[in-house]
Amino acid sequence: MAYGDVVVLDDVDLTVAAGEIVALTGVNGVGKSTLLTCIVGFRRPAAGTVSVLGGPPRDNAEFWRSVAIVADQPTWYPGLTVRELLELVRMTHRPLRGWCLPADELIELFGLSARADASPLSLSSGQRQRLSLAAALARPTRLLLLDEPEQSLDAGFRQELATLLREQYAANGGTLVMATHDHDFAMTAGARIVPLAEGRIAEGPNAEEPVP
Amino acid sequence: MTAEPATIADEAAPASVAAVRSFLSKHRRRSWVDLYVVGFALVIVGIYSANFLATPLSRLSHPATHAAATHAAATQAVAGAGLVIGVGVGLLLLAQALGPLALSPADASWLLLTPLDRRNVLRRAALSIAGLATVAGALLGVLGLAMAGPYLRLTGSGLPGSWLFLSAVAGAGCCLAAVAGAALAQPQERPRAIIRAACVTVAVAAMAGAVAGERWSAITRAVTAVFGGLSTPVFDTAALIALVLAAVAWLLLWRRLASFPASVLRSDSARSGRALLAAQYLNFSLLFWIAEDNHWRGRLLRSRPWPKLPPALALAWADWRRLGRRPGPLVILAVGAVLPALLGAAVTGRARADLIAVGLILGAFAVGTQGTTATKRDQDDPALLRLLGVNQGQALVARAVLPSLLTSCWLAIALTVLCAVGTLSGWLWPLLGLAAGPGVAAGILRMARTARINPADRGPDTPMGNTPPWVVSRMLSVIVALIGTAPLVGALLKGDVHASTAIDQCAASVIVLWVYLMIARAMSR
Question: Is position A208 within any domain?
Answer without folding.
Answer: no
